[in-house]
Design brief:
heterodimer; A: 308 residues; alpha/beta; Aldehyde Dehydrogenase, Chain A, domain 1; three-stranded antiparallel sheet; 10 helices; 18% strand; B: 487 residues; seven-stranded mixed sheet; six-stranded mixed sheet; 16 helices; 16% strand; Ald_DH_N (chain A); Aldehyde_DH_dom (chain A); Ald_DH/histidinol_DH (chain A); oxidoreductase (chain A); Aldehyde dehydrogenase family protein (chain A)
């Protein structure tokens, strides 16, 4: 780590305190149940930390946590979800320095470039915070059916979404795939970038202090293919975002996902080529929304004339 | 099967004279080809199959059976046609679709009789539900063709290319309309495979395309079996796959298109819960329950096949329901008084029979009104199961027939939990006079379509489709455009 030892004045050099990076599941910070870790290095190959190497069991535990959180989170008001997403931006802003360092180390960026990435990630939370109470009006609405019915279509969250975070963009990419999933009321099991999981694991600490109910976002680190397989075939996962899967893995997971007809968001572009700085559209939200249409008879007052 | 003697008397009090709709309005040719690139042609391997009337087992016609080679030819024709069709101004595509809508209206009686003959459903339904909805669907999407930039999918949303569409036999022409109308409005071209038991209305639709002057290759119709459908789905030059049918086949299709760029929408099975609360208007609820499960002989993916009735009104409701079922007229689908027609095929009848028998074997109590079923054809009496638990197979599996499983509940929470206790999520019904309860329950149901104090209502402006294993994507309304646009 670049700042493991720092000068404090002219006297003794102070030994810094390392952080044990842990998973974020159900609002808690467990180690992998397997007890395994793997070495995470910076872009030059220098050791940064030992990250948990999540197991299939960790993945299943995370699904249980996400399912448990779904009812309350999807039932929260859109305004409340917006407030919480904005709170995440606030918390992140406060820990900006830490994330600039972690992103710089993870992605081999200069400090100023890493700062731009973190700023963009904070702004992305703000952007999605504003969407929570607007998306329903944009994609839902009344339908003028040919009969005496009030007919209304509304978007509802799909449920538990497994999210394979982008491999290259370890932080802005990560935020760009998590925020749209939870903004609309889904809960998420997120598999962090395999090579650069530390910003994702630290994001868990931000989420834990942002009034986001435990279990809404669960963050796992480890081998993407190993963790993704049980998620893709899990009968209690409703959808999967394959952003962080390569072509072969994406196909394999899409086949597994067919077993319970998960909604599948295929990788949009070759991972490294994806431009996460662009302003997102609404596609990442609508990919994990269901449209419910409710018919209500309007009845009739029996009056023949028009009398507004 | 138990019958109720008092019901016998009540139903026999009504004698109806036969009132058959004339078959003379429809002229079915002894044989039909595939419709590819604007021409009717034989299958490459010369194969044919017979389509029969399910109510009489009479052979209606002999139809060319598409194989993989024919699929390839049809996809190439559709690809060739795509360039010009997608480049047409939307306003011109709109006019073709308006023409089709009008011709469907003009020929609606002919098509209704044809559909009733080939499918077995009552003329009352084809005449008053299927055909008006077919015309309405084309009319609705016609209007979108030159307004796509206002649909919320960007200023100039592009079509996908060739759409491969595989449709079921329960609403043959209506499912064709649900597939073809939005596909053409958005500028795609189509290869459509109708079900093997109901190919005729799609072939008549090919003639409507001819009358409308639709450019050749824009719509291709390939009658055939599952192998032809699989070939359409797997064809590398198909850009979009749309399927309506069973959940099992839907999963297979999802596996086939995995790892491709093909866009997929699936409209699959269901096990809809029709929830009746103790304050519901009983007579209206009974009509809704009957419509929910006996409309189209229950061969409806969104059928209300599970009746969840609040325990306190169970006896009263079931008495009314049985009384009403005793007045249902089962028989000749062409008779204008018929309420319940024939089951679509011997295979489907066997499936319904097996599941109903299992219901009995597992201990549920079976009841049917006394009704005389015709000698020939495929028939199944309206059937009610009481004493059904959530563990019974008839409460879990889609029967796709005129079989209603009755379960009870005590509290709204229990009703919601039971309604959602299924891998499906297509439809649900709520019967109560309390408005706030309707909204609260509708909000909790994991289903794509919820009918409150009504059931089985459809409209081209109203998005239709499932949650969970009932599939994904929506058909109808603005939402229905998305499936055919590159967005």
């Amino acid at each position: 780590m670049s700042n493991d030892v720092s000068n404090s004045g002219s006297a003794a050099r102070r030994l810094s305190v390392f952080k044990t990076y842990k998973l974020y599941v159900g609002g808690k910070f467990p180690r992998s149940e397997s007890g395994r870790v793997y070495e995470v290095t910076d872009s030059k190959g220098d050791w940064l930390a030992n990250a948990p190497l999540s197991s299939r069991k960790d993945a299943r535990d995370a699904v249980v946590a996400a399912r448990k959180a779904f009812s309350a989170w999807s039932g929260a008001t859109a305004y409340n979800r917006g407030q919480i997403l904005y709170r995440i931006a606030e918390m992140l802003e406060g820990r900006r320095g830490q994330f600039v360092r972690e992103v710089a180390e993870a992605e081999g960026l200069s400090k100023s470039k890493a700062a731009a990435v973190v700023d963009a990630a904070v702004d992305r939370w703000v952007w999605y915070a504003g969407w929570t109470d607007k998306i329903a009006q944009v994609v839902g609405g009344g339908n003028p059916v040919a009969g005496p019915f009030f007919n209304l279509s509304s978007p509802e969250p799909t449920g538990v979404v497994a999210v394979l975070a982008p491999q290259e963009s370890s932080f802005l990419g990560l935020v760009s795939v998590i925020a749209p999933v939870i903004a609309t009321g889904n809960t998420a099991v997120v598999v962090a970038s395999e090579r650069a999981p530390l910003p994702a694991l630290s994001l868990g600490e931000v989420l834990a202090t942002s009034d986001l109910p435990g279990g809404v976002v669960n963050v796992l680190s480890g081998r993407t293919a190993e963790i993704a397989a049980p998620l893709a075939s899990h009968q209690d996962v409703n959808a999967i975002d394959l952003a962080g899967a390569d072509e072969a893995l994406a196909k394999e997971l899409e086949i597994a996902a067919a077993d319970n007809l998960k909604r599948v968001l295929r990788p949009q572009a070759v991972d490294g080529a994806a431009d996460w700085t662009a302003v997102p559209g609404i596609d990442r939200m609508t990919a994990f929304l269901e449209t419910k249409t409710v018919w209500h008879p309007t009845g009739s007052l029996g009056a023949s004339g028009s009398s507004y | 099967m138990t019958t109720d003697k008092t019901m016998d008397k009540r139903s026999s009090a009504f004698e109806y004279a036969p009132a058959p709709e004339s078959r003379s309005v429809v002229d079915i040719a002894p044989s039909y080809g595939l419709f590819v690139d604007g021409e009717f042609t034989d299958a490459a391997d010369g194969k044919v199959f017979k389509t029969v009337s399910p109510s009489t087992e009479e052979v209606l016609s002999e139809v060319a059976q598409a194989g993989a080679e024919d699929v390839d030819r049809a996809v190439r024709a559709a690809r060739k046609a795509f360039e010009k069709w997608s480049a047409l101004p939307g306003s011109e595509r709109a006019k073709y679709l308006f023409r089709i809508a009008r011709i469907v209206q003009e020929r609606s009686r002919e098509l209704a009789v044809l559909e009733t003959l080939d499918n077995g459903k009552p003329i009352k339904e084809t005449r008053d539900a299927d055909l008006p909805l077919v015309a309405a669907h084309f009319f609705y999407y016609a209007g979108w063709a030159d307004k796509l930039g206002h649909a919320g999918f960007g200023a100039d949303p592009r079509p996908l290319g060739v759409a491969g569409q595989v449709i079921p036999w329960n609403f043959p022409l209506l499912m064709l309309a649900w597939k073809i109308a939005p596909a053409l409005a958005t500028g795609n071209t189509v290869v459509l495979k109708p079900a093997e038991t109901t190919p005729l209305s799609a072939l008549f639709f090919a003639d409507i395309c001819r009358q409308a002057g639709l450019p050749k290759g824009v719509v291709n119709i390939l009658p055939g079996y599952g192998d032809a459908g699989a070939a359409v789905v797997a064809h590398p030059d198909v850009n979009k796959v749309a399927f309506t049918g069973s959940t099992g086949v839907g999963k297979e299709i999802a596996r086939t298109v995995a790892g491709t760029r093909k866009k997929l929408t699936l409209e699959l099975g269901g096990k809809g819960a029709n929830i009746v609360f103790d304050d519901a208007p009983i007579d209206q609820a009974v009509e809704g329950i009957v419509n929910g499960i006996f409309f189209n002989q229950g061969q409806v993916c969104c059928a209300g096949s599970r009746l969840l009735v609040q325990e306190s009104i169970q006896d009263e409701l079931l008495d009314s329901l049985k009384r009403r079922l005793s007045t249902l007229r089962v028989g000749d689908p062409l008779d204008k008084n018929t309420d319940v027609g024939a089951i679509n095929s011997a295979e489907q009848l066997a499936r319904i029979t097996a599941l109903a028998d299992q219901g009995e074997a597992e201990g549920a109590e079976r009841w049917s009104p006394s009704c005389e079923l015709p000698e020939n054809g495929y028939w199944f009496a309206p059937t009610l199961f009481t004493g059904v638990t959530q563990a019974h197979r008839i409460a879990r599996d889609e029967i796709f027939g005129p079989v209603l499983s009755v379960l009870t509940f005590r509290t709204p929470d229990e009703a919601v939990a039971k309604a959602n206790n299924t891998p499906y999520g297509l439809s649900a019904g709520i019967w109560t006079e309390k408005g706030s309860r309707i909204l609260a329950v509708a909000n909790k149901l994991r289903a794509g379509v919820v009918w409150s104090n009504t059931f089985n209502k459809f409209d081209p402006t109203s998005p239709f489709g499932g949650y969970k294993e009932s599939g994904f994507g929506r058909e109808g309304g603005r939402h229905g455009l998305e499936a055919y646009l590159d967005v």
